[in-house]
Write a structure and sequence with these properties.
The chain is of the alpha/beta class and 486 residues long. It has 16 helices and 21 strands. Helix 2 (41-57) links the parallel strand 2 and strand 3 (63-67).
Amino acid sequence: MPRRTKIVATLGPATDEPAVLEAVLAAGVDVVRLNFSHGRPEDHRRRAEAARVAAERLGRDVGVLADLQGPKIRIEGFRGGGAVVLEEGARFALDAALAPDAGGADAVGIAYPDLARDVRPGDWLLLDDGRLELEVEAVADPRVVCRVRVGGELGPRKGINRLGGGLSAPALTDKDRADIVTAAELEADYLAVSFVRSAADVLGARRLLAAAGGRGGIVAKIERAEAVAALDAIVEAADAVMIARGDLAVEIGDAELPGVQKRIARSAHHHNRICITATQMMESMVQNPTPTRAEVLDVANAVLDGSDAVMLSAETASGRWPVKVVEAMARVCEGAEREPLAQRSHHRLDSHFERIDEAIAMATMYTANHLGVRAIVSFTESGATTLWLSRIRTGIPIYALMRHRDARRRVTLYRGVHPVAFDVVHAQHPNRVIEDALRVLRSRGAVADGELVIFTKGDFNGIAGGTNTMKIVRVGDPLPAVEGVL
């Protein structure tokens, strides 16, 4: 059976060589991520086009995720351009009035002038992904005076977080607004919004993307404490959520992260949204050719939690082993998917369905899981039916037969869904569309004579939202005559 959990891989210098990029896609990448925190617009356009060309050579569809930088709150630099060492117990100030290159062992400039208005004595500030800890002692705008509680080396441009959240920086910066236009121009299939605090941030990004001519889905990155408090509203406003565990762990604390990760996955599942688990999943493979056992378990647990996708960041963007890390992640996903827990579902058993196509999708999945079919095939325009199908845990592959390329790229992020180019409107025999579909699936080795296949379709081909039929077919058996077909 093909792997169900999707793999998102970040592109970067390590994948710029065409042969490496094609090998990474061949190893199992479903969606490529463009990290707008680094690089120029022309770099992102070039990488998106290269990924699509490579995917076409492989006969596949690949999605593109444009990931906005967001209001990353950072310190500035130090005299001489190097780093300083903060000694435990020493005083250290964060000063918005200090020149960008004037920092030293006693103070450093900051790129966020509102910090002094967001914090008060007794707050804890975490630097460099939580590696250094400062306790605020005094605030005299624009200067925040702290006591070093956990010291160490501090380099330039490192991030600042407030333990418990509460920094008021908006989710979208001027840079993000410009990058949204770039994302629309390169026809990104998904746009990830960083440091979301509320559903309004998601809706604002959606409006800006639409105004720029973009049609991609919106991914809300959950990495602020405020986002956890407003989780269900954010999930409902978005098309997908990303569990961005780096900044999230810094804000809520390491001990809270495992439970919150599972809560986010459950919320996404409940609201029929996509869930991506990200950050340091196989971090050791930036340098090493094999993952640690802890990383193997981390990826497997994300699969068992119901993640639609797992994501690689530096491992593929700048790591030494981009192909090996994708192969390792694919192998771990497949192993986890063989567990019975990954193939059993009680999702929505007690729900009332308001849409016919949703009811057909739920009936299809429960029938498939109890009948033992080889494949589920959905004739779909927008992919809505396949999204509902993918919410139910199963070991059975779901094939989305779609005529529009942008819709096929969109479903590359759906768990267990495999897009297939198929023009249902111009099939060889409109009334024999199932026969045409089986012919295509046979050519891919997806089905064979004697196997059962479940189809979902509508009465009228090419109409979005019209799925109203579930049909069970045994491959190779003659189909009944259809009026108008000899």
